[in-house]
Amino acid sequence: MALVAALATDAELFLLDEPTSGLDPLMEDAFRGCVRELRAHGRTVVLSSHILSEAEALSDRVSIIRAGRVVETGPLEQLRHLTRTSVTADVAAVPPGLDLLPGVHDVVVTDHRVSAQVEPAGLGPFLHALTSVGLHALTSQPPTLEDLFLRHYGSGNDVDAGAAGGDGGAGRATVDGAVPRRSGDA
User: Whole-model pTM?
Assistant: First the structure.
C-alpha cells in the first residue's frame, strides 16, 4: 500500500527501498511500468534492490560503488564494453588456435560446439574464425549488470576492502538512481 501511495504523488524524486519485495510477478511488471512512466515524465527514481536484473531492466545509468567510492559509472551499454561477451557456436569443424586469438578467453570445445568469453575487440576475429569453418548456430550473451558488478567484487573473497570505514566490501551498484544490494547487505 505504501508503494501505491508513493507512486501516486507528484514528486520529482522517488526514493524506493526494495519496492518489489513481496510482490507477485504481475505486480512487479506493473511496478516496472509505473517506473518507466515516471521516467518518461522527467521524474527521477532511486531504488534499492538486491535483484540486479530488476535494476538492469529499469536503468539508464549505472554507478558501481565499492568501499564507499564510485568505481565505475555510465550508461549500461557503455559499461558492457568493459567486460566480455559469452559466445557459444555450433560449427562444422573446430578452427585451430581459437585460444590464441587476442581477446578470446576460456575456450571450451565439446564435439562441434565452441564456447568462449570474448572481449569486444576480439569479437570480429573470433567470429571470422568460426564462419570460416562453417557456422551452424551462434548464441551470444552480453554481460549483465551482475557481471559488471562482480567484476569489481570477484568471488566475494575481498571483504576487507572497506574495512577502513567504507561499506565493508559489500558494495552497491547505483542504477539510474537504483541501488541494488547483494544478499546479506543491511
Answer: 0.55
Partnered with residue 63 across adjacent β-strands are 73, 174
Angle among Cα 178, 3, 63 to the nearest 5 degrees reads 5
User: Which three cell numbers, joined as nine digits, stand for 7?
Assistant: 507512486
Query: How do residues 130-181 score in pLDDT, each as one tens digit?
Result: 999 999 999 999 888 887 778 777 754 443 333 333 333 344 444 444 444 4
Rounded-to-integer distance, Cα 90 and Cα 83, Å: 23
For the chain, list the domains and their CATH numbers: 2-79+148-180 (3.40.50.300), 84-141 (3.30.70.100)
Distance (Å, rounded) from C-alpha 153 to C-alpha 146? Answer: 10
Separation CA 161–CA 153 (nearest Å)? 10
Q: Which of 29, 28, 71, 62 is nearest to 145 (CA)?
A: 62
- The tens digit of pLDDT for each residue in 45-67 reads 887 777 777 777 887 777 777 88
Within 10 A of 70 (CB to CB), how many other CB atoms are there? 11
